[in-house]
Write a structure and sequence with these properties.
Shape: globular
Largest sheet: 5 strands, parallel
Number of strands: 9
Number of helices: 11
Helix content: 25-40%
Structural class: alpha/beta
Oligomer: single chain
Strand content: 15-25%
Length: 304
């Protein structure tokens, strides 16, 4: 039995196979419409989510399976003090696979140790968000034709942004990747990412504060929101939340084929005028999230 806690749980070759399967699902949805008939996915979400939870549910329904679960800790026995370990033991009696989001780093890993069914980390605090990373990789490969030989700008909350941390970890295994890390000093990428991932793997990167300075060099711009829920005080959040806003004027500085990605939800860090730019790929990215989660469910259930 296999779980997914981090993008690093899959080799590059396995990721390629997963993305090939996702692309085949996109091209031939009817071929997979009953692949999970009789199977149940439990979505155990201890904090709010729209895209991740609904895309998991959509993925399982598209495969002909069923979905059970809860959408917040308040609607689960966690509100009565039940541990994650006990919850997953119970869920293992009801479902065939589990997707878990939790505000505490490592909670899905704890669950996987006690589970009798595959557990997918659907986001744990500011740590990892592996299925978003799989979505990002599939989007880049599908729209760019390849992963590698590119400069990717990561902009916004690089300190708390688990999507950023997961994506960096995944991309350092590909050839000729350069990062431009765009953030205010207070939201710089954590030192362990800088030292243990980027420098340790001899990855070229630079840190800048102005988005305008980075735009002309980018093949991919990955925007993130400043996350209110990760801040300890409202004043600090309000000071940082509008630090970066991507608008039409800034887009004129970019390459004609640069892709703009965003894990969503956006607040106001991407102006709505950018939505009509053909380089804006964040809503396509959300669609790719369904395909890759379908492929992941099939793979972990050994149904592909």
């Amino acid at each position: 039995m296999r779980h997914l806690m981090s993008p690093m749980d899959f080799t590059v070759e396995e990721l390629e196979e997963l993305m090939d399967l996702a692309n085949d699902i996109e091209a031939n949805p009817e071929k997979y419409s009953e692949a999970c008939k009789g199977k149940k996915l439990a979505t155990c979400f201890y904090e709010p989510s729209t895209r991740t939870r609904l895309s998991f549910e959509s993925a399982m329904l598209n495969l002909g399976g069923n979905v059970i679960g809860f959408a917040s800790a308040d609607s689960s026995s966690a509100s009565k003090g039940e541990s994650v370990s006990d919850t997953v033991r119970v869920i293992s009696c009801y479902a065939d696979i589990c997707a878990m989001r939790h505000p505490k780093e490592g909670a899905p890993l704890v669950a996987s140790k006690k589970s009798r069914i595959p557990v997918i980390n659907a986001g744990d605090g500011g740590h990892q968000h592996p299925t978003q990373t799989l979505t990002d990789l599939l989007t880049i490969r599908s729209l760019n034709g390849k992963i590698g030989n590119m400069t990717i700008g990561l902009c916004g909350d690089l300190k708390f942004g688990r999507t950023v941390h997961s994506l960096i970890n995944a991309l350092v295994r590909y050839d000729n990747i350069k990062f431009i890390l765009i953030s205010p000093g207070e939201l710089r990428v954590p030192s362990y990412i800088r030292e243990d991932v980027l420098k340790k793997n001899n990855i070229e990167f630079e840190e800048v504060e102005r988005l305008e300075d980075a735009m002309p060099d980018l093949d991919i711009l990955y925007m993130t929101r400043v996350q209110r829920e990760r801040f300890f005080n409202e004043e600090e959040y309000l000071r940082m939340k509008d630090y970066y806003i991507l608008d039409g004027q800034k887009m004129t500085l970019a390459k004609d084929d640069m892709l703009v990605l965003h894990p969503l939800p956006r607040v106001n860090e991407i102006s709505v005028e950018v939505d009509d730019d053909e380089r804006a790929a964040y809503f396509k990215q959300a669609q790719y999230g369904v395909y890759i989660r379908m492929a992941l469910i099939l793979t972990l259930l050994e149904l592909n």
